[in-house]
Amino acid sequence: ANEDAPFIHPNKKLLFFTTDGHRGMGGNDIYKTELIYGEWAIPKNMGYPINSTANDNYFTLIADGSKGYFSSDRKGGLGGQDIYMMDMPENYETIPLTMIKGRILNTETNQPISTNIYIVDRDSKEKVDYVYHPNEKTGDYLVILPPNKSYDMIVESEGFLPYTLNIEVPNQTEFYELYQKINLKTIKHFDVVVGQEVEIKNAFYKTHEESSQDVRKEYEAALIAHDSIDVYELMGDLIEAADQAGIDYSVELLMMENPIDGVDFNDSNEKIQTAKRIYYYDESDESKFDKKIVGDIIIYSLPTMFVSKEAKEQKNMTEKTSTNYNKHLLNKGLKIYFNAGVSNLNNKYEKDLDLIMKNIKHQNTEEKILDAAKEVFTEEGKAGAKMQMIADRAGINKSLLHYYYRSKDKLFAAVFKFAFGKMASRIFDIFKSDDDFFTQIEKFIENYLSAIIKNPFIPMFILGELNKKHNNIAAELIIKSGVNIDFFEDIVNEQIKKGNIRETNPKKLIINILALCVFPVIAKPLIEHIIFDNDKNAYNEYIKNRKDEITQILFSQIKP
């Protein structure tokens, strides 16, 4: 028999080919075989409607296994070998690949960089073939990876030393898309480049749960967008052939945007995994470089960056690092000059340095106290918290604690200012973003609910303070935070005019949002002990799903 047109799927486990043997349906038929335990299984005829009594050839399957393409000279075509597309049956095996759609940019210019990308399987050391290098005009690239493997992504970008990113692909059962953004920046001292900063942002999506485009369509859209296809000549041929389906498809490609443009790479997006590393150059020491073998070439790369691991470590470090500091500490600057060839510090600087260090030490102690107090107030509540508990948690004696804060009430107020100050402006700034109104509402609920769960004393303190006639700290802080309800009202009224939401009272809407978020937190003892019969896990699961419930309730009220 004559075998032809082999196609190995990116998962490297499926092989399709054409043959006129194997007792097919007539003419050339398309067969499939699968690699099982290192051996190819007996080929199987793909059957009707892919195969017919005519000659059927050149079958290809897109990465997620949802569509197949093949050529055939069967009846009903335009003559000779026509190209057909087929939606694969729902019960057809989903190919659990990961498709990386990325973009690489120079942070300083926000422009794409001329780049080559190589992917190597860390275990087998084999080069991965399904890599489409970055487009010079957009910086966009595409990589397709089989599951349950660890890969090294070696990147050569013009103006930067080669660097390596480790990508861990889990043993998944779904087809995943990983949207990736790489930001590069040179590190300069006195206008001399001494290093580079590499920042990676990853966003993971399940293809079948969230909207996606197939690889072929994206590739064809990119060809049209960058003049690789003469679209006018193509449309002329389609019109002459009266191919309405082809015309519609071409128009769809022309109007199609790159999906990566719609990905929110802001750090506030919980789906974003961010890792950053700064490399300082020492090209004289070869031990500072990793030797990477890619096929027949050798690349000396900066040390490998393990993205997932480093992203997790950096996130934990950020969460533990307090951003509360006295800004007046930054007002004091000190320039120190050294004589040429001398590293000893001149005595005249010692007094100023001692003063700066004293202020820093004071600030660090205050930060430790506030962090410890926040933990104790969260665990014990204001009534149950003791100053000695807070001093012990901060690692200081009680006298020093009283030196900074004379009473528990004053310390509680300081903790509230610290927590509320970080939370308020950041959350309400969501409504100043470019997201649509419903996305803004979702993000507001998600961030507000997360903040009060982490700081449950905030709503309780606000309620207690608002009932006071004098020295209302909460009201004062809310005003100082810049929270502007009028701004929210303007947004809601604009959405009503556009017909995006029903007629609704903006004040009642924000009250509903806050009430739906706050009540489960301040009523935790009631809900956990009575409703969930002292089951903490049941309460935590309820809180975990609360955002979606609140969103559904609100959207059912305001959507047209």
Summarize the structure.
The chain is α+β, with helices and mostly antiparallel strands and 560 residues long. 38% of the residues lie in helices and 24% in strands.
Secondary-structure map:
Blueprint: E1 3-8, E2 14-19, E3 29-36, E4 39-40, E5 44-45, E6 56-61, E7 67-72, E8 82-87, E9 98-106, E10 111-112, E11 115-121, E12 131-132, E13 140-145, E14 149-157, E15 163-169, E16 176-189, E17 192-206, H1 215-225, H2 231-240, H3 244-255, E18 272-280, E19 290-294, E20 297-301, E21 305-306, H4 307-320, H5 350-384, H6 387-394, H7 398-404, H8 408-428, H9 437-454, H10 457-466, H11 473-480, H12 485-498, H13 506-522, H14 524-531, H15 536-544, H16 546-558
Parallel strand pairs: 9-16, 15-21
Antiparallel strand pairs: 1-2, 2-3, 3-4, 3-5, 6-7, 7-8, 9-10, 9-13, 11-14, 12-13, 14-15, 16-17, 17-18, 19-20
Helix pairs in contact: 2-3, 5-6, 5-8, 6-7, 8-11, 9-13, 9-16, 13-16
Main attributes of the structure:
alpha+beta; 16 helices; globular; 5-stranded antiparallel beta sheet; 7-stranded mixed beta sheet; 560 residues; single chain
What would you say this structure looks like, in words?
By secondary structure, the chain is α+β, with helices and mostly antiparallel strands. Helix content is 38%, strand content 24%. It has 16 helices and 21 strands. It has helices at residues 215-225, 231-240, 244-255, 307-320, 350-384, 387-394, 398-404, 408-428, 437-454, 457-466, 473-480, 485-498, 506-522, 524-531, 536-544, 546-558; strands at 3-8, 14-19, 29-36, 39-40, 44-45, 56-61, 67-72, 82-87, 98-106, 111-112, 115-121, 131-132, 140-145, 149-157, 163-169, 176-189, 192-206, 272-280, 290-294, 297-301, 305-306. The strands form five sheets. Strands 9, 10, 12, 13, 16, 17 and 18 form a seven-stranded mixed sheet that branches. Strands 1, 2, 3, 4 and 5 form a five-stranded antiparallel sheet that branches. A four-stranded mixed sheet has the order 11-14-15-21. The chain is globular and about 95 Å long. The model is unreliable at 207-213 and 226-232 (pLDDT under 50).
